[in-house]
Amino acid sequence: MTTTEDRRAAASHVLSAKTLTDVQLPDADATTTVRRLRRLLHPDGLAGDDAAWRALDALASPHVVAAPAPPAGPSDDAPLELRVGKRCYTLGALLTRGDLSDLYAAGPGQVAKVSGPADADLLEREAATLRAIHAPDDHDGPRARLRRLVPALVDTFALHGPDGTRRVNVLERADGCVDLRDVRAAYPNGVDYRDAAWMMRRLLAALGTTHFRGYVHGAVLPVHVMINADNHGAALVDWCYAVKTGEPAHAIVAARTGWYPPEVLAKRPLTPATDVYMAGMCYAYLLGDTTTGEILRPAADTPREIQAFVRSMLIEAPFRRPSDAWALHEQLGDVMRELCGPPTFRPFVMPPRRATT
Asked: What pTM does this model have?
């Protein structure tokens, strides 16, 4: 008979472990160990431990037998098959290279982020953050519907190769999306303020969901903000830099230091106001005025009400800067109604990309 003491002992055993080997029971292999502990820790059971349950899944999921490192370039002709227990992922075309990881196609509706050995811990942070943001919560109300603005984590595991251990995060793919750099490339003088408004409201909704869960994204940059021109969808991606509210940044995008508010570079605690500042930078970037270099301001032909809204997001002192992304989301909606009347769907066209040779 399983007792409360048995469950508490199992929870303590799992929460103190760092690897799957640490939790392995002396009379069982890894698979049997995980099965037994999951029964003990199931949160629906008497005195079950939800935190330990999630910790066990995190320990078990990354366990992968040695596999070759992913190819250095596009892999359409030589896909790489990764088997993780009963799960199998086929890494196909290299979609993009980032500062911390490479992004590969990984089946219908999925992408795989593969870190270098030195940055595996940052992808672990991303996985933990996405789990927390997407965890069910009866108190979310209508905000739960907005989690589609944040990609869901499908799987995470380690990839052991000759050059070290990498981390692989398999994520839902934001099909049909382009990032804000693509938008500015298509509209070099900036987008119409009416188009920029819906993009910003989607971003603020994503941040509101994030902050409600107790996290700060920490890297709200144009490359990480995706929009769908056809259906006005959006997604905030790359959660490797995220921290819990009140923690300092553990990493930044070094090539974009001018986009960060002062508290980040001073290594002070990050708050929702940190993300608001960077969202304001993205808003100004969309509107087109980059003449001031790193400090961006909205274009001169943008309505004064929008300019004032952007400037409020770019206040340097974090304690004076707005910090409630949901309130800003609603405020921007009110401003746009005053300027343009009731909301209507306004088609946004992304010109086709020119072929390159």
From this structure: 0.76
